[in-house]
Amino acid sequence: MRMLKLSPLAIAVALVSVTSHASDFSCEEQTLTPIYSVQGDGSSSPLIPDGEYISPDAYFVKGVVTKSMSSLYKGFFIQDAAGDDNEETSDGIFVYTGSAPSADIQPGMEVCVEAKVKEHYGMTQLVAQKDKVEVGHEVSPIIATNITVRDGETLVEAMERYEGMLVRLAPDSNLQITRNFGFDYGSYRNNMLLSHEAPLIKPTQLYVAGSEDATALAKQNAENKLYIDTDEKTPNGVIPYFPGLDAEQGYIRVGDQLVNLEGIIGFSYGQYRLIPTNNIEPADFIHQNDRTAAPVEYIGGNIKVASFNVLNLFTSASEVGGDLNATCSDQADADAAKGCNRGAKTLSEFSLQRTKIVNALKAMDADILGIMEMENNGFGANSAIANLVTELNLQFNDSADHYAYIEIADEDKNQGKYLGSDAIMVALIYRPAKVTPADDAQVIRMPEQHITGNNPDGEAKQLDKYQRDSLMQTFKIVGTKKKKETLSVVVNHLKSKGSGCYEDWINGEYEDDPADLQGHCNAFRVSGAMTLSQELKKVKGDLLVMGDMNAYGMEDPVRVLTDYKPKKAERKIMSASGTSIAGQPLHATGIEAGKGLGLINLASEWHGDDSYSYSYGGELGSLDHALANKSLKKKVVGIEDWHINSVENSLFEYSGKYSGSLAKSEGPYSASDHDPVIISLKYKMKKLGFTLKIQNKSRQPVYPVFNTWYWDSTKPWMMNGDKRTYTEKDRFLKHVGIKAGDAVDLSILAYGVYDVPCTFTPLVLEGKLKAVYNGNSCRIQ
Q1: Which pLDDT score, from 0 to 100, does residue 24 have?
Q2: Burial 639-678 (b: 16+ CB within 10 A, else e)
Q3: Among 11, 470, 730, 775, who pairs with 698 as Cys (CB 3.0-4.6 Å)?
Q4: Which positions make up the signal peptide (predicted)?
Q5: Closest Cα partner for 314 from 390, 415, 423?
């Protein structure tokens, strides 16, 4: 690759100014081996024999220091000042010293070493003894080389060409954030992950598990990663190379293109890493899909349904004062660092969490909302669900916008209080002015797994696994033309991928990621999906199955509920073994799933491959789904995964555990780790109309007042005994923007001075209405 060359004078100055660490070592009169000859044009150095990892001989190598390091790597990076104009060979290399380099080895110093060449876990390096290092004076600094990824070349292949070099992210580099700054379990430190051209997509979001396409995309993703790392581990809440990190202005989102960052390309923990050498500003993160203040408002919709995983909204901490949940032994348990309370432990953290969630819910403006990860502490006044609904209703002045929550029947409650036995539950809230429950909610009991198995090493283990129960409520739509038209909403939160189940244990994948890429407990989630499918076959009317399925778009549980065809499947979908429901045996051994329920995945239908609600390990995908039956699909006018969480930085979530002194924001961004999903529906509504008759039974002249509007030149004052009728066709009401279905403040202006209210709550203009003024008061009959 082309590099800037030092002038002959600069080279001469460097040579005569060299000083040695040890009097018996000097590179003078030695045959120098250029760095690019050490690196070669392959994946390992040509100076190391095949089958070996270190060269038999030592070489004299000289270069300009680009970065000195003491933690992630112990030594310093040097680069050839001239280069060889060959893009296939790197001009930089790491010099390993085993400890922090001496203070005089700093960027810009020319250094010569005698060292053997070693392939150290994938990175070519020079292994130098301290007494084999010669340091000269400062020379012209190395100019960073712009990264380019050639057509047909993977990002990993490109990084091999730049290994050890000082590079720069330019617009043409087209490197984007695919995992926001956060904890990396590979290197056990905070860092950020880039990919080329676009963020990585979870293979099983797009392709059936076990398919050639899924395997190919997994391989492609593995070769499209570059970590942005640091030498020292970073303090909580700090990105050392980005001092402008800020919740409102200096935010980072997955999909942002990063430019102007310079650094050294190293290799460790099986991945290429760029170690920054400069600082960047907020403008260096180019937001490709920036924040929006609210979800899309789809034209024509009149009912909105949404789901939202609220990331453990708990009220049971002492400072918050909520009831204890189903798993708590006592208050001390709820207040313990690792106790039964999975959410906020202080009032300040809870207040921030609730505020962020409420601000998100207000912007969503849904009429029915399914919630996951609500604390399972009952339905009373001190429950988490009551706390949220109370706070949410405070945001709306109009009572027609207020919410209520669904409470399950007493016979369905665990211990007379709870929905199931987990610390968290699913929940439903709704606007009574828009929809009304048609009957009691139905709890759909999910399978448990209780079975003993042996792993491939012959070790026995008892597996006891549980899933959260699902909740179904059938609603009537207020004002719909069809009186018997209903919408049944089912809220779900299937078993997580985090810990292993029986099938993982016997397959030897209990601690490792399963080979089919579906995560742990997939068969157990399939059992849950099969149970749902069986129950939902009975549902009449419109059906919407939504929530956190903990399964990506083309994984088995989603396919069981959508379009799985057993006869055409190359790989059969199997349920879990050792399952039961409420103590009744389900499947002693796993069975094959039958034909899918036939629901339509609305996000995939509307947005195709661009749908996602969650980010994990640098890959985007949808864990949160909206699955509709055919009759409901016809009413859908739009669906959106509102990207306020999955692409945002977790440092701005409510918890301060890992964010240090970083300032938070009350905005909806980073309110949770899952994006809400909002579905806009269009129901055929009855044409609204009203007949409002106003009668003056007083002795004084009066005039009707609507929302402070009262003077209509076509209508005189009403005298004693006068009656007047207003309908939705009234020209005056149309002129001031009042129509059928609106809530208005109706009053009577008496003597042209006194404004007497007819009702203390807004009057909804619908149906037959009558207002009577008797001289002292005005009332609605």
Answers
A1: 79
A2: bbbbbbbbbbbbbbbbbbeebeebebbebbbbbbbbbbbb
A3: 775
A4: 1-22
A5: 423
What CA dihedral angle connects 595, 598, 601 and 604, to 10 degrees? 70
- Cα distances from 287 to residues 229, 249, 253, 255, 291, in angstroms, run 21, 12, 7, 7, 9
Q: Rounded to 5 degrees, what are φ and ψ at 174?
A: 55, 50
Element (H, E) at 560: helix 556-561
Encode 597-612 in three state secondary structure. Answer: CCCEEHHHHHHHHHCC
Tokens 């004052």 locate to 717
Domain 35-143 bears CATH identifier 3.40.50.300: no
Q: What are phi and psi of 168, to 5 degrees?
A: -135, 140
The structural domains of the chain, with segments of one domain joined by +, span: 35-143, 174-227+237-245+254-287, 303-681, 687-780
Render 204-270 in DSSP notation, one character per residue.
Answer: HHHS-TTSHHHHHHHHHHHTS-EEE--SSPPPTT--TT-TT--SSSS---TT-EE-S-EEEEEEETT
pTM above 0.85, yes or no: yes
Is domain 303-681 annotated with CATH 3.60.10.10?
A: yes
pLDDT of residue 154: 98
Contact between 301 and 682 (Cβ < 8 Å): yes
In this prediction, residue 137 carries a pLDDT of: 87
174, β-bridge pairs = none
- CB burial string 296-310: b at 16+ within 10 A, e below: eebeebbbbbbbbbb
Q: What 3-state class would DSSP assign to 39?
A: helix
Helix, strand, coil percent values for the chain (each to nearest 5): 15, 30, 50
Report pLDDT for 552. Answer: 98
First to last CA, the chain: 87
CB 258 within 8 A of CB 175: yes
Specify the pLDDT at position 13.
32
Q: Give the pLDDT confidence score for residue 713 in this predicted structure.
A: 82
Question: Other C-beta atoms within 10 Å of 153: how many?
Answer: 14
Query: Distance (Å, rounded) from C-alpha 564 to C-alpha 188?
Result: 39
How high is the pLDDT of residue 714? 85
Strand 486-493 and strand 542-548: pairing? parallel
Below-50 pLDDT ranges, the chain = 1-22
What is the pLDDT at residue 18?
36
Please indicate whether the domains covering 35-143 and 303-681 agree at the CATH topology level: no
Which pLDDT value is given to residue 21? 44
